[in-house]
Amino acid sequence: MKKAVGQVSEEEKNEIQTLFERKNGLIELSKILNADNESLYEKLVKDMGETNSHFQKWWDDMSTKYNWENHPKGNWEINFTTNEIFLIINQ
Length: 91
Fold this sequence. Notes:
The chain has helices at residues 10-32, 38-66; strands spanning 2-7, 74-78, 84-89. The chain is an alpha+beta fold and 91 residues long. The chain has one domain (2-89). The chain has a 3-stranded antiparallel sheet, with no helix packed on it. Strand 2 (74-78) and strand 3 (84-89) form a beta hairpin. The longest helix has 29 residues, at 38-66. The radius of gyration is 15 Å and the shape is elongated.
């Protein structure tokens, strides 16, 4: 089930979009990087952890600010074109 639960400002959308793109870029980089280059690998792991923390913090902060509906089996997603937030409930 997918239900619209809110909307964010353009600035807020830009913030999560930057984090989303960074997170995806790091995931792609992790697919081609191996632990042989230890210093680069450690930097990647650290960056992924920090990016994931910032990503989750954004969702936590916005859900508190806007009081979005939630569900134990759900997660939110954003439409980057309309800035709408949707609750996706996995059955």
